Every structure is written in C-alpha cells, then in structure tokens.
Amino acid sequence: MASTLTTTDNRAASFVQQVLTQTKYELLLTARRGENILVTLIIPALLLIFAASLNIVPGLKGNPVDFLLPGIIAIAIIAAGMVNLGIATAYERYYGVLKRLGSSPISRGGLILAKIISILVLELVQVALLVGIAVLFYHWQPQGSLLLTLLFVALGTTAFAALGLAMAGALRAEFTLAGANALFLVFLLIGGGIVPLDRLPAPLAAISGILPSTALTQALQAAMSPSATFPLSQLLVLIVWVLVILFVAIKTFKWE
C-alpha cells in the first residue's frame, strides 16, 4: 500500500513539474517575440487611450473609462489567448516544434495546461498595465469585486486560450492565422466592449448575446461596477464555453 502511494505521488509530482517547466519555456518564448508583446500589451493599452481620449462612445454618463476598461480587458484577453497563443502554436506545429515536444514525456493535456497558465500570467501583467493607465491618466477609481474580476479573467483566459489552441491543433497555420484574426475582429466589433449592445442592430445583438466575448465583457462590467452584481447568466455561458472548447482542444490537438 505504501509503495502504491509513493508511486502515485511521484507521478503527480512529475506531471506538475513538467507543466511548470513547460510554462517557463512558454513565457520565455513569448518574451522573445516582439510581435507577441505588441499584441499582448501595447495594442490594448493604445486602444484604451484612443477610446477614452476621443470619447468615441456617445451617451455615456460619468467617466467613460468605467464602461471602457472592462471591455478593453476582455479584448486584451481575447488577443492574448486566441490570437497570440493560437497563431504562435500553429506555427510551432508547422515548423515541427510540437512534433519534438510530442516525443517528450509531457502529454497533450499538460502542454495545453502549460500554455494556458503562461497566458494567464501575461494577462495579470496586462490587467495591471490597463488599470494603471486608467488610474493615472483618467482618474479611474478601483471599484467592484476584485475576486469576481479575477475569476472572470481566469475563465475568459481559459476559454480563449483553448479556442486558439483548438484552431492551432487542428488547422493549418495559414487557416489559424486567418481564422483567429477574423474572429478577433468579430469579437471586437460586436462583443460589447467598445460599442454598447443596445446600439447594435437587433440581429447582431442577438448573435452577440451567445458569444463568449460578450459574456466575458458583461461579466467584467458587472464585477467592476460599484454595485458589483453577480452576473450568473454570463458565468454560466462562460463555463459552458470553457468546458466545450477545452474538450475540443484536448481531443483534436495534433502534434504535427
């Protein structure tokens, strides 16, 4: 009995160590790719500055950053998880990097988990940057529930990182590049982050209501509002998307 427990513990420790080592590797690779830093950090920050400074959303009462910041955070999560990670992983597969990883002890699930954790680490840095810009330049005051906000950041990161990995693991690199950018444009335009849903045409608003980008944006808006209401319906939508996309990513992911 004792030997069985020891073997199980060693296996668990080995899996955890593999994931942590791969996470470190993913973070180092991301830091070395300048375009990743551009997408992950600079573009969402510039988008927040542009939208807030020009007040492009008419009819908002009070500080426009109260509405814009949660949406820009959602856009940043989509850009980092789906676009950045998806395209980078697709080309790792194209150039045979994933094939070499496939011969290592790490499993598909372990690799996907490591990539999601690495994106989550980057997202925490990005959220801190966006909040810092909002506070320093637009006098935004932190409000709402920090725990709820972090919960939805984690769920959103998992959903969109899994979506990027699902495309990268099943499609050619060129298709992943085109598909990720096209989906990002759709989520940007009708996800409710910059243009309120009540200003969209009714058919687009109806489609937007079932998208993970809209659920993430609305959940963050609720969590970061002064009342900090609990967005149960958005939470359920996000959980469903996370479970479905993560399952698809794990089942369809191919090393080569």
Question: How would you describe what is shown here?
Answer:
- With 256 residues, the chain is an all-alpha fold.
- It has one domain.
- The protein contains ten helices and no strands.
- The radius of gyration is 19 Å and the shape is globular.
- The termini are far apart.
- Residues 1-9 have low confidence and may be disordered.
Average pLDDT, all residues: 83
Number of domains: 1
**Helix content estimate:** over 70%
Topology order in helix (H) and strand (E) letters: HHHHHHHHHH
Question: What percent strand?
Answer: under 5%
Radius of gyration: 19 Å
What is the overall shape? Answer: globular
| Secondary structure tally, helices | 10
Oligomer: single chain
Spans of at least 5 consecutive residues with low confidence: 1-9
Distance between the termini: 40 Å
Task: Briefly note the structural class of the backbone.
Answer: mainly alpha
Q: Count the E strands.
A: 0
> What characterizes the major β-sheet?
none
Features:
256 residues, mainly alpha, globular, single chain, disordered N terminus
Gist?
With 256 residues, the protein is mainly α.
List the helices and strands and how they pair.
Layout: H1 2-32, H2 34-54, H3 64-94, H4 97-102, H5 108-138, H6 146-170, H7 173-190, H8 202-208, H9 212-223, H10 232-252
Protein name: Transport permease protein
Family: Belongs to the ABC-2 integral membrane protein family.
Membrane topology: Multi-pass membrane protein
